[in-house]
Write a structure and sequence with these properties.
294 residues, 20 helices
Length: 294
Amino acid sequence: SLASNVPGYLVSELIKNNVWQPAQGLAYAQQVQNPWQRAESINAIVPYMPEALLPEVIKANHRIKDASYRSYVLSALANRFPKVWPEALTTVEQIHDRYGDHRKQAKGFACRSIAICKIVEDIPWQYLEEVTEIVQQIPEASDQAMAWISLARRDSALWQEALNSALNIKEKPERVKKLIPIAQNLPKLWSEALDTAREIRDIYNRVWALIEIAQGLPEQLPELWSEVLTLSRKMKDPHSRAWAFSAIAQHEPELWTETLTLTKEIKDINMQADVLGEIVRHLPDNQWPEAINI
């Protein structure tokens, strides 16, 4: 039926091009049975709707039971009509956080931390205290750290809160991921990130932790660059070392030759191709002949 076949982006185009009026878009959205599709359809109206339609739009949104969908729509409404922010934040607080595959497959705001990250740049300062209260209620340390990091980019006084949450993350690879943006603002934390990476037992996760550190580590910390290089050299298989070196060499070009030599030593042709594909994105022109000969 029509009520189940018009996607949200098409509703937006119909209104944008004056084929439908916003009220017609809302009438369509109210017929949609799928909760997420209804949220998408309501959201499509928001950029074009007059404020006079706001009570009806909010009423239609209330009929959606899932707070992750309702808050998605309300945050868009609040960007246009700031008086909606209190209700939007109340609805964010009601989100039942999804985890694992459920989060990957979810629509709208799959958890409170994602919602905070999406809306934090638009929230008026007067509501930031309410947002911090929502973040304090998030039970999972990684999610809470993610939310604090997004908030700290607006209010630097919150970096310590972000650090406290990050240090509570049990999984070391995830802890490194959260420590890196914190260290970019609190440089003394780079050592903590590197120490955590050193403790990661799984070689795959350790490589990617070192790569992420190398991609953000300031040039002004040569002693830590030296440590990243030392940890990379200690890896036994050339595949892992080559991946790590491909990140370090972007900052220390004298390592490109060694990186290419390691890549040659990788026996699995698919793994070798993956590493080489990353290398050639950054390789200096004068070393392309060596890469071509691999």
